[in-house]
Specification:
single chain; alpha/beta; Stationary-phase Survival Protein Sure Homolog, Chain: A; nine-stranded mixed sheet; two-stranded antiparallel sheet; 11 strands; about 25% helix
């Protein structure tokens, strides 16, 4: 396959470099277009008031185009200007840190896959439930094998497959579960602090209410050492509420 590979951790991140290596080893053609800087938490933000600048990134056995923009910028720019041929699918990752539960609303990793799906391409977001791993070769190798098994040609248009790996050795993984996204939110708890100049600032420290999590949802299954796959769709029109808003005139 011809794959557009991106992420939100940046083009120099361990996850994307390792995943690119294993995709190429498996015989795929890979175009890497990823942010030059860390872009976690930017969701589907687009750069519209500044120019998008790019920089070719070259390392031994790894190269791509870095974009001074967001993950969604990377996908749109790659599809519109940077790639000579359209890809067969778009892969975003491997992200450092899980994207489950409420994280889907904020994740740049998932947002890049969303952008790809909205453009009509099969799109996959890959994440690992570890923010600072030293080696992700096993997860990336497994992800490449999993990618080959996914029925991408039968999945409806404008869908994203959100895949998360647990923080454990591959041999300790209990299996794969196709599951729902956990419908919880982050508590709005902030720790207020004072900087050396006497100005106030805040850190978000809120947690997720575990009592509201279903045992068969992504967060709990991931914690219990399952790879989770959650199909996502983004059709925002609420047909039920449209019927309630039956207003003929002002």
């Amino acid at each position: 396959m011809h794959i557009l590979l991106t992420n939100d951790d940046g083009i120099q991140a361990l996850g994307i470099k390792t995943l690119a290596k294993h995709l190429i080893k498996a015989g795929h053609t890979v175009d890497v277009v990823a942010p030059m800087r860390q872009q976690s938490g930017v969701s589907q933000c687009l750069t519209i008031f500044d120019p998008l600048r790019t920089k070719h990134h070259e390392e031994e056995n790894y190269h791509g185009i870095g974009v001074y923009g967001t993950p969604a910028d990377c996908v749109k720019l790659a599809l519109g200007s940077l790639m000579e041929h359209q890809p067969d699918c778009i892969v975003s990752g491997l992200n450092m840190g899980a994207n489950v539960g409420p994280d889907l609303f904020y994740s740049g990793t998932v947002a890049a896959a969303i952008e790809g799906s909205q453009q009509g391409f099969p799109s996959i977001a890959l994440s690992l439930d570890n923010h600072n791993p030293s080696d992700v070769n096993a997860q990336c190798e497994h992800a490449v094998r999993l990618l080959a098994k996914l029925p991408l040609e039968t999945i409806p248009k404008k869908r994203v497959l959100n895949i998360n790996y647990p923080d454990c050795p591959i041999d300790d993984i209990k299996g794969i579960r196709v599951c729902a996204n956990s419908e919880v939110t982050w508590d709005n708890v902030y720790q207020g602090c004072t900087d050396p100049r006497g100005e106030r600032y805040y850190w978000l420290i809120g947690a997720r209410d575990e009592s509201k999590m279903r045992s068969d949802s992504d967060i709990i299954l991931l914690r219990n050492k399952y790879i989770t796959i959650t199909p996502l769709r983004f059709e925002f029109t609420d047909q039920q509420t449209m019927k309630l808003l039956n207003i003929d005139s002002l």
